[in-house]
From TrEMBL:
It comes from the Eukaryota. Residues 56-76 are annotated as: Disordered. The keyword Glycoprotein does not apply. Signal peptide: none annotated. This is RecA family profile 1 domain-containing protein. It holds the Pfam family AAA_25. One of its GO terms (molecular function) is crossover junction DNA endonuclease activity. It is found in: Nucleus. Its main location: nucleus. GO terms for cellular component: Rad51B-Rad51C-Rad51D-XRCC2 complex; Rad51C-XRCC3 complex; replication fork. It comes from Cutaneotrichosporon spelunceum. Keywords: ATP-binding, DNA damage, DNA repair, Nucleotide-binding, Nucleus.
């Protein structure tokens, strides 16, 4: 079997151009000339010659059996698809939130088991590669807890995660304590250790706005050099961009940079992206237009970055606390394209709690016939 062109030692944009033009395997390049290839891929002649030189060298090496799945462009039987190894799935550790997110998952996800407070956890998972989530809410609503638990669930499942920490909330001691509590809550830890979990979680500390912009510019290259990473957590995305003094033009450029970086991480690198965001008070008129203190009719809490960086497929989850006397937390999910999850009859919200270890969990359902 011919080797994939992704095995060639080439810049990422050339690999993408090869795939986009149908050159999935080295054998597809046989008979191509440097001039034609350069014109087709929009690259220089020396770069095209290098591509063909590497392809010829790789095709001369006997191929080894590969455990990679067949190319998506090649037809597969239904039996192959049924027995294919499932991709990574990440859980928030709350079955209620996972069930909520399952409504927006591109894959069919079975009903999620509830992880009741003080009980053994059953891992489900509704967050899959390619999804982009924004978790927003006021302080104390559980944003960082949901983000950390999602990363831990992936690490326990054998996948790696990257946490970009802007506020300093993801300290090593907190991650270690949460990993230990998570393993202790599993009915069967499978011999996993806390150190093994921590080895699969990469942490970047981002202290300034300049550093955050630099991280966004280089995120694609970092993920390319760490192919085992399948989840990117940004806690908190809005932290360095919430200054009221930030002018409109630079703000729009930054939002476009975020959209581009997050989009590439999800689509090109095949990662799930979870970004937490702070809330800000927005003044609106009766027609839902921006207003000032003098012209505003109402004030609402909204994600502080707005919707300039999101796409129609971004799943926006708002976390909030209950009213006085209600100790539960609640999550509401929607997308721009399907507000309120219109294709489902279920309400787009869920209730959850945070246990003593700082991890999301579920509360037992109310007894039948309880009208309280």
């Amino acid at each position: 079997m011919s080797a994939a062109t992704s095995h060639l030692s080439l810049p990422h944009f050339i690999k993408l151009a090869l795939v986009e033009n149908g050159y999935l395997n080295v054998a597809d390049l046989e008979g191509a000339t440097p001039t034609d290839l350069a014109a087709e891929l929009a690259i220089s002649l020396p770069q095209a010659e290098d591509v063909l030189r590497q392809a010829a060298s790789l095709s001369s090496v006997p191929s080894r059996p590969s455990s990679r799945p067949p190319s998506p462009s090649r037809a597969q039987t239904a039996a192959d698809l049924l027995h294919a190894v499932p991709g990574p799935r990440f859980s928030t550790l709350s079955g209620a939130i996972d069930g909520l997110l399952a409504h927006y998952s591109p894959l069919h996800v079975a009903p999620q088991p509830l992880n009741l407070k003080g009980k053994g956890r059953a891992l489900g998972g509704a967050v899959v590669p390619g999804m982009v989530l924004e978790i927003s809410g006021p302080p104390g609503s559980g944003k960082s807890a949901v983000a950390l638990s999602t990363a831990l669930s992936g690490a326990v499942g054998g996948f790696e995660a990257l946490i970009i920490d802007t506020e300093g909330a993801m300290v090593a001691q907190r991650i270690k304590a949460a990993a230990g509590a998570f393993l202790d809550s599993l009915p069967d830890s499978g011999g996993r250790s806390v150190d093994e979990i921590l080895e699969r979680i990469h942490v970047m500390r981002v202290a300034t706005q300049v550093q955050m912009v630099a991280v966004l510019h280089t995120l694609g290259g970092w993920l390319e050099s760490h192919p085992a990473v399948k989840l990117v957590v940004i806690d908190t995305l809005s932290y360095h961009f919430r200054q009221p003094s930030l002018e409109l033009t630079p703000r729009k450029r930054i939002m476009e940079l975020i959209k581009l970086s997050v989009g590439k991480a999800a689509t090109v690198r095949g990662c799930a992206v979870l970004a937490t965001s702070q809330m800000a008070t927005k003044l609106l008129t009766a027609e839902n237009k921006r207003a000032t203190f003098e012209t505003g009719d109402r004030a609402v809490l909204m994600p502080s970055l707005g919707d300039l960086w999101t796409t129609e497929r971004t799943v926006r989850v708002a976390l909030f606390r209950g009213r006085a006397g209600d100790d539960l937390r609640y999550a509401h999910a929607s997308t721009t394209s399907t507000p309120g999850n219109s294709h489902r009859s279920d309400p787009p919200w869920a209730s959850f709690d945070i246990d003593t270890a700082g991890l999301p969990c579920d509360m037992p359902p109310a007894p039948m016939g309880d009208n309280a």
